[in-house]
Amino acid sequence: MIRVILNGCNGKMGRVLAKLINEEKSMEVVAGIDREIDKFDNTFPVYSNIFSCLEKGDVLIDFSHPSSIRNTLAFCVETKTPMVTATTGLSGEEMTLFVEASKSIPVFQSSNMAVGVNVIIDLAAQAANALGNTFDIEIIEKHHNKKVDSPSGTAFMIANALNETFEQKKEYIYGRHGNEDQRTENHIGIHAVRGGTIVGEHTVIFAGPDEIIEIKHTALSKDIFALGAIRAAKFITGQKNGYYNMKDLIK
Ligand SMILES: NC(=O)C1=CN([C@@H]2O[C@H](COP(=O)(O)OP(=O)(O)OC[C@H]3O[C@@H](n4cnc5c(N)ncnc54)[C@H](O)[C@@H]3O)[C@@H](O)[C@H]2O)C=CC1
Ligand SMILES: O=C(O)C1=N[C@H](C(=O)O)C[C@H](O)C1
């Protein structure tokens, strides 16, 4: 039985995860962590302070907020608990904390746990490689009106993967309000739309002279992210200390 500690257990994703883990024969949630402990009638103990959690987990799955990342990492390192993290909106410095922690524990990080998104990232990187600087690249992401970070972690993951294909790294331009200059081939435009209950949509546009290519992923339910995280949790419990992502899982 894989014993799971769920960070952000009373959030939208935490709730979906708790339900899907409950349907897994080989997994159980032994504790949850959340700023809001009384919101739901959880079937496991919930703590607002992660260091009060005395249950031992084989893995911690994190869908929370950047403000909880430092304590969560410290807890996982102290208790030698492998960590799967899906939280987005992290600063560059916070990202490096994961890499540092991965020297002491296995850490799996992905801004998008859906298998399909990771496929379109590869497709878009292939397109960027083939098209070079002749096509302009714009990324449009759409999410629900409850999302707090923008642009999405996935939009950054896509932009970074595309940028890896270019010798001269492109600059990210977020929206264009107030810009008076034309775009140049050294830009990747990134645009965020927020509304209703859109689960998550990412489109990469390659706009060239008289032709356009669009590569798009649409998430139709939050289950796909939770199922990806469950797969990642099963994977990470058998790994050595180190930093892992969806590429390690899919290969
Ligand atoms: N990588 C992926 O595939 C996906 C990542 N996400 C990311 O996961 C995160 C959570 O998403 P949602 O569940 O939609 O958000 P949410 O806002 O519904 O849930 C976040 C939960 O974390 C709790 N929380 C916030 N700060 C905390 C702190 N300092 N300590 C303890 N608990 C704290 C909140 O009370 C809330 O219950 C976001 O960063 C989102 O972008 C969401 C979906 C898929
Ligand atoms: O907040 C969300 O909902 C999502 N966040 C992730 C992101 O920021 O990329 C992944 C997914 O698109 C849903």
Automatic annotation (TrEMBL):
It is an enzyme of class 1 (oxidoreductase). Residues 2-113 form the Dihydrodipicolinate reductase N-terminal domain. It is found in: Cytoplasm. NADP(+) binds at R35. GO terms for molecular function: 4-hydroxy-tetrahydrodipicolinate reductase; NAD binding; NADP binding; oxidoreductase activity, acting on CH or CH2 groups, NAD or NADP as acceptor. Residues 116-249 form the Dihydrodipicolinate reductase C-terminal domain. Its EC number is 1.17.1.8. It holds the Pfam family DapB_C. Catalyzes the conversion of 4-hydroxy-tetrahydrodipicolinate (HTPA) to tetrahydrodipicolinate. This is 4-hydroxy-tetrahydrodipicolinate reductase.
